[in-house]
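TOKENISED FOLD:
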Amino acid sequence: MTDEVQNLYDMIGGERGGLSKLLSKIPGFRGYMEKESRRDADQLLRDTISGRLQQTRLDLAAVQHDLSRDIILGIEYAEPIGRADNQLMGLVSKIKDAPQGYAGFFDAVKVDEQDLARLYEFDEQMLGHADQIAVDVAALHKAVHASGDINEAIRTLTANLRAANESFGSRQEVLNQVGVSGMISKEEIQE
């Protein structure tokens, strides 16, 4: 797990303070607090990823604006860049609008460390996609200003956008797997 992902989760856990320590001594309350921390961390992480992608959309709009200064290039690349922007906008919406939390994952008081690791790996992968898309938009910007291969830059960007969308589409599958294996019995909750 990258330091960035770990820091996001640690930040949520660290915000609980002294009252949380006291309340964690109440039977069952510690599990509730851990569950709420996971929900908060999930929301914070999705906000971070969607925020980065939203900034990348602004950068892509700037590239499109620069291209439109040349009528021929503006017309030639309006459609492929528009499609890329639509993919990016769709990804941002999916991430922002995804149901908060991991249903079965948050319902469990105890979470298997392997399940948690799989979720962190998925989250890290989505951060990686957001970073790669930003790099791709920067490369497109450079290609526009340095008379580079704009077509190749757009192909790379759209391929990585497609991969990010597909990856986020598999989120529910990951969550369902965790939800099934992360569930515990009522007897375990009472322990």
Q: What stands out?
A: Residues 3-190 form one domain. The chain is about 85% helix and 0% strand.
